[in-house]
Fold each of these.
Amino acid sequence: MLNGLFGGGGGMVAVPLLRAGGRTEKSAHATAIAVILPASAASSVVYLWKGLVPLGLFLPAAIGVVLGGIAGADLLSHIPGRAVTFVFALLMLAAGLGMLFG
């Protein structure tokens, strides 16, 4: 349920909570990314099992998610923590505006 409500494991909630718990910015994001994989995989199995997503739509999306996750994890190790915070804030702002006006 939380995966569906917050998207991909709840990064919007997990990252600030991990930061409040004392993790660095990079560590908080890396931990949230690590949580996203099993949560999203479980959700995917349920959606596919119930026939809610056509396999022809699921496969290209899954490939994109896996490749994007690998690229994002690699990028995370190469950019400064402040930049991670800034990019995360911009993405959350864009997502919020998209929900309001999209």
Amino acid sequence: MAVAEMHTETPQQHLTVTGIDNRKLLMWIFLASECLFFGSLISTYLIFKGDSIVGPLPADILDIPLTSTSTFVLLMSSLTMVLAVFGAQHNRPGLMKAMILGTMVLGLTFLGFQVYEFRTFASEGLTLGTNQFGATFFVLTGIHGTHVGVGVLYLGSLLVASARRNGLGRETALHVDIAGLYWHFVDIVWIVIFTLVYLIP
């Protein structure tokens, strides 16, 4: 009996020597590499933002109230993601699906704010090729926005899979938890970007 139980449980756990599932460990490793990636982008922005000879410059164009609103939206998406993980871990598929959908909607709303901001900046003369500030700003925030978009697609794939007859299988909580790690990382990176780019002169 014990042998049979071990045979059925081992393939489902995929544990590493750390005691963490190897898929979750892989996500942690990926996010660590992303920290280095965003660290280099943020450093580049901070180095070159004051070297622009022609305007517009940060003080001329950044809209703090608008970006504060979009930041609040993204932070609320972290709350819905936590509730989605809670629903997955406590066998409440209705809550899980609703919160995944809510997280996707909030993520898309954040992207809508970013598109509006980019269009406004372009209409005021700030583009990728205007000056050093424009180049580093659009690359940094644009790549972050791309990560948010990837996160929305990731959550969408989970939502579609959960609607199938067998759902996400026996490891539903693990799949949603791994997606949550990615989503919270994206939110934390934005808090750093918002503080350094928008709030610090």
Amino acid sequence: MKDILTAPFMVEMVRTATNMYDHGWDERNGGNISLLLDEREVREYLDADRAIRTIPTGFAAPRLDGQYFLVTGTGKYFKNVQYAPAVNLGLVRLTNGGEIAELLWGFEDGGSFTSEFPAHMMSHVSRLAVDPENRVVMHCHPANLLAMTYVHTLDEREFTRTLWQMCTECIVVFPDGVNVLPWMLCGTNAIGEATAEKMKTARLVVWSQHGIYGAGRDLDEAFGLIETAEKAAEIYMKIAHLPRLNTITDEQLHLLERRFGVKGREGYLD
């Protein structure tokens, strides 16, 4: 069999985790990534019929039964993924209606998947219902989006409109806007369920005073969504205390819709 460390999905996962750490989004063991894989590509690199061990997931997800995921580990530092991927990442297959994860590779130190695994899987279910090509759920702690939740109303329409007004590209990159959750206890099924509900209408979900979830068809899309929203939040945090003499108007946002063939979320523009 081929060396799994050379698999395109593994190389890109390691690169993405490293890039997220370098951006300052994933301090210490903050943040997590899950990547849905196709069985055919998995079988090129390992014996998918041999499980190393099983791990209870603590939730049910019949929609994901039999699906394969490459996922970051609990308590693992993103900065170490590039040096020891087999310790900091794991490849699992969900069975028994999603209640059991069979470890097929990784977590060599006896570790397990991220504590946010339920939130990830629930979000995958939501996004797959909207877009069957969705493959990635990504969580991290970008400083400016985090800061914005302290000083900006958490109303989703207003939060989205502010981000759209900060950078010309924003409405083009995330026309579905940004959904927002109030502070909730992390690592629980409750926050996973709330996030999954929000994922039905947007690919970006802000966790107030905590971070953000992004979803996409590949790692680049999910990363780019968060990167664009974070840049907009950075601009907002630099000017929020100043009188705003100019802005991107709704009329101009409509021009961007027509120019790039996108449609801003219904009811978000005048």
